[in-house]
Design goal:
Elements: E1 2-6, H1 18-27, E2 32-36, E3 42-45, E4 63-69, E5 72-74, E6 86-90, H2 101-110, E7 114-118, H3 130-149, E8 153-156, H4 167-187, E9 193-197, H5 208-217, E10 221-226, H6 227-233, H7 241-251, E11 259-263, E12 265-269, E13 272-277, H8 287-296, E14 300-304, H9 310-349
Parallel strand pairs: 1-14, 2-7, 7-8, 8-9, 9-10, 10-11, 11-14
Antiparallel strand pairs: 3-6, 4-5, 4-6, 12-13
Helix pairs in contact: 3-4, 7-8, 8-9
Amino acid sequence: MIRFGPAGIPLSCKGRTLKDGIEDVHNLGLTAIEIPMVRAGTIERYPEEEEIGMCIRDLKDGLAVELIRDNVPICDPKEPIHDEDILVIMASGIAESYGSLVPIGAMARRLDVEISLHTPYYMDLGSNNELTERCLNNIRHAGIITNALGGDVVVTNLGLYNDMGNTEETNENIYCNVADIMGWWKDVGIKTDLGIELTGRQEAFGSLEQVLELCDSVDGVVPVINFPHYHARTNGSLLTAAEFKNLLERVEPYCKNGMHTLFSGVDHNNGNEKRLMPIKKGDLKFEPLGEALIDLRHDVTVISGSPLLEHDAMYMKVIHERVLTKRVVKAMRAKKKDEAAAAVSEDEEE
């Protein structure tokens, strides 16, 4: 199945909650939504007296993602809160509370809308500094939220190389940090995948080769194809259906639960993305990808990262259906032609 959806709540949606966005996506005939984790900051506080003995899933005041006890984070939503615990509350507007995540996820499944979540766009898992610690927490919290929603993948990039050019050290730090995250992922029972996004700038970790090598090295990590990023980084290499198909086929073996991708137009120069654009602008076209998706025969989610969000998601869906219809009509005509030729051959033999 090929799914299409926006990277965020549709611009046309009157409400601005995740619940509103999922319902609007469904009403537009789309089947996916990627939640941008824009406000990833957290606040820490001690529990109120009436909250002691309750669980994270029962709290109504804020989106609590975990509690800290004796300097150890605990994300089990059924763990009773002690008076000396510290509650970690997300500032994000993803949901009002942890308890609301499960029913929102159930609603999405009922409406056949696939949920994914994208961590903050600026990440640094290579420097091992204070910012790295915050980034690791962002990924952990994204995993907790997406798992509660029943989502399919947490999408993240991993950061830039530092000015000193210590690429080997940066790579080693990235590998170790991702391995640590996935060890924690497994220990706490998070079922969603962690998707590493292809990046669009040369100074960022995230070429196709780098991402696939990381996926080979760390269990539970999958590649996420950001088509405009790849197109920019490879100096505009995605022009034909064959080129799209080659990229998809290289990534497909790593995506047993379906392939997650992002598409938009892109302005690029000298192997670097400058900005994402509406799909109809720039030299990256959706039609050849539509052809390649039909040949792939694999479950793929295509998220619109265009500034036009749901408009371009719907545009991709229409183009894909048009390409598929043409393919079916062509096959039917070929079949009729073959049948007619066979009938003529039989008459001549008689």
